[in-house]
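Data deposition worksheet. Section B asks for the primary sequence of the deposited chain exactly as it was used as input, without tags or linkers unless they were present during the calculation. Section C holds the resulting structure in C-alpha cell form. Section D is free text for depositor observations; keep each observation to a single sentence. Incomplete worksheets are returned to the depositor.
Section A, Depositor: J.P.
Section B:
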Amino acid sequence: MYTVKGSIWIVSKSGTFIGYGRAILLERIKEYGSISEAAKSMKMSYKHAWEMIDSMNKQSKTPLIERIAGGKGGGGTKLTPEGDKVLKKFWELYKGFEKFNASASSKLKF
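Section C:
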C-alpha cells in the first residue's frame, strides 16, 4: 500500500514564515514560557531557535513572541495574540493538508 506524504510551509519573499517545526517551536514556547527550554525540548540550539523566531517576527506585521522582563517571578517569553493567531491558522491548514493526504492515499491503486 502507498501513502501520500508531504510538508506544508507558509512562505513570503523573505523565505519560510512558518512550517511544522516552527509551529512546534511556538507551541513549546507557549508551554514552557522560555525560548531556551523550548529549544532544549526539541534538541535544538538556542541560537537556531532564536534565528527561527527572529525570522518569523521580521516577516510578521507584529511580533509573534514577546519577552517578559525579569523580576520577582523571573523573566520569560510568551506568544503574543498575533502569535496565537498564526499558530491557530497554521494548525487549521495542517489539519486540512493531512486530510488531503489521507484522501489521496486511499485513492492510490497500483
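Section D:
Residues 33 and 73 are 12 Å apart (CA to CA).
The chain has one domain: 9-106.
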